[in-house]
Design goal:
about 400 residues, alpha+beta, Alpha-Beta Plaits, 3 domains, five-stranded mixed beta sheet, 15 helices
Length: about 400
Amino acid sequence: MLFKKSNKLFVHIDCDSFFAACEVFRNPELKGKKVCVGWEIIIASTYEAKALWVKTWTPIWEAKKILWNSWVFLWLDHEFYSLISSKLMSYLQENMLSVEQFSIDEAFCEITWLSEMYKLSTFDFLKNLQKDILEKVWIPVSIWCANTRIKAKIFSKLNKPFWIYIWYDKEQEFELFKKMPLKLIPFIWRAHQERLKYSAKTIFDYIHLWFWEIKKMFGKNWTDLWLELMWVNAFIVKKSPEAKSISRTRSFNKWITSDREFLLKQILYNFDKVFEMISDKNLEVKSISVMLRDKWFYTYYFTHKFSDFTNLRKDLLSVVLSLFANNFDNKKLYRSTWVVMSDFRSYLPRQINLFDKSNHSKDNDYKLTKIVNSINEKYWNHKVSFWVVSVWKKDEAKLYFRA
């Protein structure tokens, strides 16, 4: 079989300890400290902590035992990390030939003729790119360059942080592949490694397998990986399908409780986050659910369907309060809460009737929601939100703004 050799250049851009780097940017006083971010396990840590073998998936109790009082532990803040990720992807869209986001903190970009346009060597161009990202996005990144995406991804295992690697020739590449185990190829999982354990232990072994044998054993996806390693562009980053629901959850495994007021606050926090998202995306929903998970991990799911689509906070919140009030059992201990909105569509403005006060009220509510969301987006450390502060009965509650 004949395949067309790739003459393009791709880079794999990966943020260094992304969540921890975001926290250091938010609070510069943390620079140089052993910062760990997580929940019950460490999700990200700075390289000062990694030097003492506190890495991803390390349990918190183990990290605390290693670092003692010298560490700074922070809870995950996905909303803030998403803001920084969006800023990075926007920067790449403006400066690269094409961008394919691979995860929240990494992307593949094409740079085929960009270095020539700036009259720089590939290395100097990437070095300038790396510095510019640090200055404008505030996050350190490492960059690996090759003529296919999968090879650029594989080379990301070579070194970090703030690293640049450029693939040069086939001989140099083969020497590296002889030392790299098969598990470094993306999407080849343990089950596949087991099936290949007698015929391919390294990446070099894998690329010397027969193409049709790989296709027979695993199918097209794995032959695409083989082609990428053999200098052929065959891999495309698939875009995530559009979400059918939007949800937020709050887990409090160490504080399992039947406290009604505590659980209400967790549900309202979830509701705030989901409502912000549908408002930002100009959506309106027809179905809303509240979920409660008890001490024994049994999940209770309560749903309400509206007769028509809505994006009015008052209507949605009253349903959430009603679902919780009517189904809460103070004899059970709960460990987490969810709020889920589904069955949505893009917002369609209604015909306003001058003599219908409810229409004016709905229009004002929608405008008010937009203003609150814009304030929250600009000042993420100083949120403005609706909140329940009074003891409520069934589906009744007093709502106030809290700044």
